[in-house]
């Protein structure tokens, strides 16, 4: 699925793809060619598609890989820097438990988390470096791209670190840092934008322009690093609360959304390479013999069907009703899906479009961004997922700290009277070793206050007198005798006492809890005050354990189904709009836009099939009970339908024709792709079932991303345009990769403070990829198969509304020679980049 | 002072607030027999298998070593005459013979915490026969036990001059199997108008002919449960090892 055209379709610039010379012209037919000549070209294209089978994976790799040889030295250095960053991340993942000191990160996924300081510093370095690459990449583009991009990136950094809170609203952390920090950091942001915009002039003003790129990368990284370092120096720690780690968390949690599409595209990569491997193995076995080819097709399809059935019957019985039903369901629903795709494809005469390439990387990223990020967030917003957000509960009505409450343990006294208790993080604590006072100020003179001390033996009235309060009402809680009181200045609260229980000591523990001012009222504060008592441990006992993490709340099934239905509905609607625009309104749309729309459509279709029962229940109630497609149903169905396809071709004696061979190779490819997807499903399943995300799972992810980078040459990073020069593409992609590495490192190293265990990560990259294996990758590969058929069958005949194709940027302009590399990328999803 | 309920501390409430004193007067007699055996929770010291009842009592009795540092022995101020009077009243309430008529020996000790607001008393009576001890035990652990203890306190407790008794209440204490416990709470109103509680926990067992009782009294605060558990475990373990 690698596209030989740039994702933006810009005009080609001065840089040349590494393999351009060795690629012949593809031999696209002239625009004037009519339908009458279709037959001849069909024959040619089909031969062309079949010939790819003789091309080795090695040559395909050579074609697609990022070309280091054609890079100038600065780009090579930048490449080395990016590779080193990813390798260092892998090493750091292995060392993530090293280091005792930790950085507080705040509450995440219902738990208070931290990260080891060395890893946190490494993350900061990766962030700085990643943004250094990105800023440099942006700075090398044309002014109209550089300016808004620099402003948007800088604005994002400023907003998420609170630098602009006082100016544009929102997060306003800079209000609590010293003025010199505030203005120095803001100045750095301004310098970043100016340098980003001005660097282009600088870059073009020098003859030895490439050298400035490294300087720019280092310079931008240093500026970002300085920005973060100064912010760290300036941000105060109040009552054990330091928001620096949480701020970095906020930046990364936003970047996660940008990571989502490529992680889903990685799933397509897995399938595609499984498909390629299947096809090549088949070719190696068949060696051009039609008889062997259809036998290989039968074997591959049978094997997939057998595996699918074996997994289906596991635990249910080979011939149980449920197994047989699932098998029939798998075949039927998959056949229905394929028929629908074919209906849309051929019904809209899409096979007659100029499918010069497969589905481009940009189209895939755009479609997965739509289906994986944009639509789900719109649906979540519509269904109130964000409107119900509220601050986490600190204490329960029962008077205990709520699970996941962010509290700190305070200790005082010593020996048999030593005591401890917990107060929310951020309260200002004064501890003189004998007594502790903790205050939560509202900044307007009001406060919540808790004071705990140990006194000689005393009764409650004595303590009340000592605190100068007027008792109103007796109270008792959890072994504490107390009284509700009112005091001076509209203070109200409780005084509690409890004897020292250690036989080796005597005395009384006294607790004073009060609120004052308009912000804090006693009734709402009472659960928290009681939680302080519940967390109290006296008599020299060990402190109470910190509140456990909050249990993950499950979204109600009905709401899940509601959201799924909306997602599918929006996806299908969007597809229709795209097709309408592309086919009726703006006919000169590039086929890739149509492809992107189709990807959204097939992903929505398969989302509907996988969740048919739930969505049906949401739409129609319990009756009728709609069936859904299962993972093993897909495997079994694909095996049976593939087998049927091959046998029909054999029965009609078409297995030896070029088209027959193409279809059989496609069947084998699909089975190979499914095998690869199933393998990855198993691997990721193993990783996710582990108590903690295993190191190797993260490494697999990083390797997959590195693979994406490596394979980006043909489609993206081996060439450039005036607006997006090669350096921008390379540096941008590397910057993205480094940021992804930093994000992975950050979220896989996060630990829950109360348990010391790995946190339930906000960002589970392998989960994103795993979920895309069958929901995104498989339908995309199916769609690509139709596009491949279309290319072989009809793309040479321009549809009446087809636009004049532009020469693909960096395309391998090869000849129609059968052994050309250009002809090799006939995978089901050729040209994804 | 009755045999099983050491009201000494309670009777000494006024003094507890001032001089922190209390009294306890034992009565005595002995007799061999089998009896309920407490369940020791600590390792027992070397058993004393021979010797007379006084030696055995000495081996069992509460000592300063059983208590945390800072606790010191105190003089018992109750006179023999006072004690006899109280015993007669209490035993009559329970419906058992007066202890003086059936004991071979007795022993009472008292310790006070440094702050003068907590006390621990040890009282051992040895009856002539185990049956007598068992009869006493049955009466005390019966339905009258708590009421008689409260009635005894009400009759004999004399508050300091200017103070008054607001209330005296009793209840059973949750103690280990084989033990019996009574909590008596006396609320005093001091001359200044302030009310103070005095809580006395009596925990006892019988081991053959030996009636062993440890009383903890707390002024303002109830006695520490951990202290009670720790001390009674030691004393009752020695009783199990030495009673005959």
Could you walk me through the main structural features you see in this protein, from its secondary elements to its overall organization?
The complex is a heterodimer of chains A (833) and B (244). With 833 residues, chain A is of the alpha+beta class. Helices cover 56% and strands 9% of the residues of chain A. Chain A has 3 domains: 320 residues, no CATH class; 239 residues, no CATH class; 129 residues, Protein Transport Mog1p, Chain A (3-Layer(aba) Sandwich). In chain A, strand 10 and strand 11 form a beta hairpin. The N terminus and C terminus of chain A are likely disordered. Chain B is α+β, with helices and mostly antiparallel strands. Helix content of chain B is 30%, strand content 26%. Chain B has a 7-stranded antiparallel β-sheet with strand order 1-2-3-7-6-5-4, with helices on both faces. In chain B, a hairpin with a 2-residue loop joins strand 6 and strand 7. In chain B, helix 3 packs antiparallel against helix 7. The two termini of chain B are 24 Å apart. At the A-B interface, loops of A face strand 6 and helix 7 of B.
């Amino acid at each position: 699925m690698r596209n030989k055209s740039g994702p933006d379709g810009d005009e080609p610039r001065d840089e040349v793809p590494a393999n351009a010379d060795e690629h012949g012209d593809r031999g696209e037919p002239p625009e004037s060619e009519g339908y009458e000549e279709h037959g001849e070209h069909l024959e040619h294209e089909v031969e062309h598609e079949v010939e790819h089978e003789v091309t080795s994976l090695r040559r395909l790799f050579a074609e697609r890989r990022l070309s280091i040889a054609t890079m100038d030295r600065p780009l090579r250095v930048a490449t080395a820097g990016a590779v080193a960053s990813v390798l260092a991340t892998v090493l750091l993942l292995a060392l993530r438990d090293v280091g005792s000191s930790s950085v507080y990160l705040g509450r995440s996924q219902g738990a208070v988390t931290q990260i080891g300081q060395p890893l946190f510093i490494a993350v900061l370095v990766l962030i700085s470096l990643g943004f250094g690459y990105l800023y440099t990449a942006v700075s090398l583009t044309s002014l109209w791209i550089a300016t808004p991009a620099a402003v948007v990136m800088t604005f994002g950094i400023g907003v998420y670190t609170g630098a602009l809170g006082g100016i544009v609203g929102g997060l306003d952390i800079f209000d609590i840092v010293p003025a010199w920090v505030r203005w120095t950091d803001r100045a750095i942001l301004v310098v970043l934008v100016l340098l980003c915009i001005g660097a282009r002039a600088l870059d073009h003003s020098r003859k030895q322009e490439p050298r400035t790129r490294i300087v720019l990368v280092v310079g931008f990284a240093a500026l970002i690093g300085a920005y973060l370092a100064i912010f760290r120096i300036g941000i105060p720690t109040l009552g054990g609360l330091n928001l620096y780690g949480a701020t970095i968390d906020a930046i990364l949690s936003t970047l996660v959304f940008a990571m989502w599409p490529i992680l889903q595209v990685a799933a397509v990569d897995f399938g595609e390479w499984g498909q390629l491997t299947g096809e090549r193995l088949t070719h190696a076995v068949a060696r051009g013999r039609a008889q062997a080819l259809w036998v290989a097709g039968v074997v591959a399809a049978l094997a997939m069907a057998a595996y699918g059935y074996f997994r289906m019957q596991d635990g249910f019985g080979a011939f149980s009703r449920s197994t047989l039903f699932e098998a029939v369901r798998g075949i039927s629903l998959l056949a229905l899906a394929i028929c629908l795709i074919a209906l849309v494809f051929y019904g809209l005469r899409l096979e007659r479009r100029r499918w010069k390439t497969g589905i481009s990387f940009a189209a895939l990223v755009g479609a997965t961004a739509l289906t994986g990020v944009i639509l789900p967030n719109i649906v979540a917003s519509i269904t109130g997922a964000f409107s119900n957000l509220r601050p986490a509960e600190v204490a329960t009505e029962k008077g205990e700290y709520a699970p996941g409450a962010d509290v700190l343990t305070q200790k005082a006294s010593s020996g048999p009277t030593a005591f401890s208790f917990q107060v929310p993080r951020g309260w200002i604590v004064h501890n003189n070793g004998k007594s502790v006072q903790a205050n939560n100020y509202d900044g307007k003179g009001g406060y919540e206050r808790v004071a705990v001390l140990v006194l000689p033996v005393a009764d409650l009235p004595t303590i009340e007198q000592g605190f100068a309060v007027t008792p109103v009402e007796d109270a008792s809680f959890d072994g504490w005798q107390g009284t509700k009181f009112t005091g001076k200045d509209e203070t109200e609260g409780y005084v509690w006492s409890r004897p020292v229980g250690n036989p080796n000591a005597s005395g009384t523990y006294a607790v004073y809890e009060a609120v004052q001012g308009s912000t804090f009222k006693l009734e709402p504060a009472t659960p928290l005050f009681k939680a302080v008592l519940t967390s109290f441990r006296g008599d020299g006992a060990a402190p109470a354990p910190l509140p456990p993490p909050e249990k993950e709340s499950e979204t109600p099934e009905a709401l899940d189904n509601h959201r799924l239905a909306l997602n599918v509905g929006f996806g299908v609607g969007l597809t229709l709009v795209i097709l309408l625009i592309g086919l009726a309104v703006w006919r000169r749309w590039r086929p890739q836009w149509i492809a992107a729309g189709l990807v959204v459509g097939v992903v929505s279709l398969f989302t509907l099939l996988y969740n048919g029962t739930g969505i049906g229940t949401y739409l129609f109630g319990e009756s009728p009970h709609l069936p859904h497609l299962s993972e093993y149903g897909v495997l079994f169905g694909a095996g049976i339908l593939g087998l049927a396809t091959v046998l029909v071709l054999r029965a009609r004696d078409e297995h030896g024709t070029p088209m027959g061979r193409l279809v059989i190779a496609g069947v084998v490819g699909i089975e190979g792709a499914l095998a690869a997807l199933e393998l990855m499903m198993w691997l990721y399943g193993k990783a996710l079932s582990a108590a903690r995300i295993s190191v190797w799972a993260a490494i697999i992810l990083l390797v997959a991303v590195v693979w994406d980078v490596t394979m980006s040459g043909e489609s993206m990073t081996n060439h450039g345009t005036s607006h997006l020069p090669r350096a921008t593409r390379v540096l941008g992609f590397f910057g993205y990769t480094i940021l992804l590495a930093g994000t992975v490192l950050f979220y896989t190293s996060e630990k829950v403070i109360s348990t010391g265990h790995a946190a339930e990560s906000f960002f589970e990259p392998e989960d994103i990829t795993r979920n895309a294996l069958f929901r995104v990758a498989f339908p995309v590969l199916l769609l690509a198969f139709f596009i491949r058929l279309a290319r072989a069958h009809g793309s040479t005949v321009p549809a009446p509304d087809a636009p004049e194709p532009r020469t693909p940027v960096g395309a391998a302009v090869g000849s129609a020679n059968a052994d050309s590399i250009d002809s090799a990328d006939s995978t089901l999803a050729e040209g994804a980049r | 002072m009755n045999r099983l309920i050491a009201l000494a501390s309670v009777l000494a409430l006024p003094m507890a607030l001032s001089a922190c004193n209390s009294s306890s007067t034992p009565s005595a007699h002995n007799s061999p027999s089998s009896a309920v055996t407490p369940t020791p929770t600590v390792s027992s010291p070397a058993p004393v298998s021979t010797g007379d009842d006084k030696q055995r009592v000495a081996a069992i009795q509460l000592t300063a070593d059983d208590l945390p540092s800072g606790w010191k022995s105190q003089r018992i101020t109750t006179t023999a005459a006072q004690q006899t009077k109280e015993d007669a009243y209490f035993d009559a309430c329970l419906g058992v013979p007066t202890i003086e008529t059936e004991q071979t020996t007795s022993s009472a000790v008292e310790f006070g915490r440094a702050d003068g607001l907590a006390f621990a008393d040890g009282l051992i009576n040895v009856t002539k026969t185990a049956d007598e001890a068992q009869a006493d035990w049955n009466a005390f652990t019966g339905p009258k036990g708590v009421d008689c203890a409260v009635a005894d306190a009400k009759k004999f407790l004399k508050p300091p001059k200017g103070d008054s008794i607001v209330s005296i209440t009793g209840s059973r204490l949750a103690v280990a199997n084989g033990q019996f416990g009574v909590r008596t709470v006396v609320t005093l109103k001091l001359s200044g108008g302030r009310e103070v509680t005095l809580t006395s926990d009596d925990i006892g067992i019988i081991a053959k002919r030996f009636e062993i009782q440890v009383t903890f009294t707390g002024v303002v605060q109830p006695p520490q449960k951990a202290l009670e558990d720790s001390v009674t475990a030691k004393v009752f373990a020695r009783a199990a090892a030495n009673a005959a």
